[in-house]
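Translate sequence into structure tokens.
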Amino acid sequence: MEKWMIGPETYTSRFFLGSGKTAHYTKELIDSAVNRAGTEMISVAVKTLDTEDSPLDMIPEGIRILPNTLGAHSVEDAINMARKARDKGLGNRIKVEIMTDSRYFLPDPHATVEATKLLAEEGFLVFPYFYPELRVTKQLVEAGAAALMPLASPSGSNKGLQTRDFIEEMLKVVDIPVIVDAGIGCPSQACEAMELGCAGVMANTALATADDLGLMAEAFRMAIDAGRAGYLSHKHARR
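Result follows.
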């Protein structure tokens, strides 16, 4: 199985389970993502860590946790959440999400760049969530991001790769992993993202709302593998 890196960490899976705004974690969802989609990392909102039904209680040992700052509205909020997650023993990974609204969960680009820089300076592996605008992409790389997480379409929308052209341009200028996040609603959309050259895909709502959750998780795994193979088969010609 192909190995790849995010910062100093080695991965084999290219599927990540997210914490979508429209779906709650369940043991079935997590088990399917781990056992049938092969995920090695699950994103968990820092604000859920102190709740009675914390997703940490359902995540198997050995699965990496990616705390996220969902609910942050400022740089200070995001930094405080990152430090809280680290203090709770969740390591130095952090997905930075700083939102400008509560309807579409669209990220604040300037605050995201600033938070990324400050957290990277503190030793965090920062995974910023942002709209794939080329100038912001370059600023995030310069700020020290470990991986980039551009949105495909609004969170929880299942509308697919609506930002395809912007992500394709991003991939021409970055040399760190790009993990497409938000809006991937079915396996074919995940395959399309991988065939562009993305390193991975994060999804949640597509699995959580499926009639057969396990089968959907397995379909995502196969689609991601197929998209990766398609990219590798003609990446030099495409470039």
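Note: The two ends are 24 Å apart (CA to CA).
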